[in-house]
Design brief:
Rossmann fold, 9 helices, globular
Length: about 260
């Protein structure tokens, strides 16, 4: 039976509740700066989250609400420019301290490093978004905590395709049986399991009603001693919050 050697984290919704008060706000700022009257409400953005990737999300929105714009000359470049503008606004929000990490994330990252587990990231968000989130909440040196930061367009197919996880595994030189994915969404489960990775879920407001079939366990959060994690489905955990030992036990149970 293989031992757990590495944790591969999703970012948006897993490390931080970035979507509603981060990415959504940044998209709306980018639209306004470009002279567009689009406003993505909390509800609309929740629907758009079914599409992974910011540029892909803009294109999907246009297909649904402004299909005629997709026929305009230069629309591909305009989508790219809008997304670059959105990223700048998002980084500004991060640097202002407006987007903290979720409960238990910093503790779990530090404990996992101390326990000798390798850390990696596999996400559809841009590399700039990842590094800005880490630096704002954990300091400049935190970038070096991660052996691999697989992000954005580094692979052609985004989640729910397994490509980003396959890339992270290849870069670490590890088989999926030695790793555990930590995700927050249905698309995340599909992506991780398609790469043969066992996966743990922590839900958020946008994903709490997703189908998490295939996950080892589903939690409301990683938890802390004064803010316990709650098991919503799947395997129970030992104790009141997620630790490296809890993750090792879940990893073992997935191989049984």
């Amino acid at each position: 039976m293989s031992q757990l050697e590495a944790l591969i984290f999703d970012v948006d919704g897993t490390l931080s509740d970035t979507e509603s008060d981060g990415h959504r706000v940044a998209f709306n700022k980018a639209f306004a700066a470009a002279g567009l009257d689009w406003d993505w409400s909390v509800e609309l953005y929740g629907e758009l989250l079914a599409i992974t990737g910011g540029k892909e999300r803009i294109r999907h929105f246009l297909n649904l609400h402004h299909p005629e714009m997709l026929q305009e000359p230069g629309i591909d470049e305009r989508i790219v420019d809008l997304h670059k503008s959105k990223t700048r606004f998002y980084v500004e929000l991060l640097e202002s301290g407006a987007i903290p990490l979720r409960v238990g994330v910093e503790r779990l990252l530090r404990q996992s490093r101390d326990a000798g587990l390798k850390l990696a990231i596999a996400t559809t968000t841009t590399p700039e978004n990842v590094t800005a989130l880490l630096k704002a909440n954990l300091g400049e040196e935190s970038i070096s905590w991660f052996e691999v930061i697989a992000a954005g367009d580094i692979v052609p197919a985004k989640k729910p395709a397994p490509d980003i996880y396959v890339y992270a595994l290849e870069q670490m030189g590890l088989g999926p049986d030695r790793c555990l994915a930590l995700e927050d969404s249905h698309n995340g489960v599909l992506s991780a399991t398609a790469a043969d990775l066992p996966v743990l879920i922590t839900v958020n407001g946008y994903t709490q009603d997703d189908d998490f079939s295939g996950a080892i366990t589903v939690l409301d959060q990683f938890g802390e001693s004064d803010n316990p994690a709650k098991v919503l489905a799947g395997k129970e955990i030992e104790g009141e919050y997620v630790t490296p030992d809890v993750l090792k036990a879940l990893h073992q149970s997935a191989q049984a």
